[in-house]
Amino acid sequence: MEIWLNPACSKCRTAVAELEAAGTDYTVRRYLDDPPTAEELRDVVARLGLEPWDVARATEAREAGIDLPREPGAREDWLAALAAHPRAIQRPILTASDGTTVIGRDADALGRVISRG
């Protein structure tokens, strides 16, 4: 299991506590210190079944000056912008060893990924 997190985020701390409680082995990626590349983000959004703009935090994206159309033609621009401004990425993002990936902001999402280890 891998978790992309910001340790200052309460949802991230909750996700880590749930992983610990379940006894799940995991690695941490502090994505603000080690930002994902556009390619890594492309892979994550594909596994999530979402578009890049769906994983953007609206306020942080606006603050970063990300003002792109939410349409397929802008997909690569979104990926590049999120890679350049990782604070604008939703968190936490968890990926199980089988590739199951969720944005772990609620108990249901966390349960889906924890059950897959």
Describe this protein's structure.
This is Arsenate reductase. It holds the Pfam family ArsC. It comes from Nocardioides marmotae. Belongs to the ArsC family. The protein is an alpha+beta fold and 117 residues long. It has one domain: Glutaredoxin, CATH 3.40.30.10. The chain contains five helices and four strands; from the N terminus they run βαβαααββα. Strands 2-1-3-4 form a four-stranded mixed sheet, with helices on both faces. Helix 1 links the parallel strand 1 and strand 2. The longest helix has 13 residues.
Biggest β-sheet description: 4 strands, mixed
Strand portion: 5-15%
Number of strands: 4
What is CATH's topology name? Answer: Glutaredoxin
Mean pLDDT: 95
CATH architecture: 3-Layer(aba) Sandwich
Spatial extent as radius of gyration: 14 Å
> What's the shape?
globular
Which consecutive residue ranges, at least 5 long each, have pLDDT under 50? Answer: none
Multimeric state: single chain
CATH class: Alpha Beta
Give the N-to-C terminal Cα separation: 6 Å
| SSE class | alpha+beta
Order of helices and strands: EHEHHHEEH
Number of helices: 5
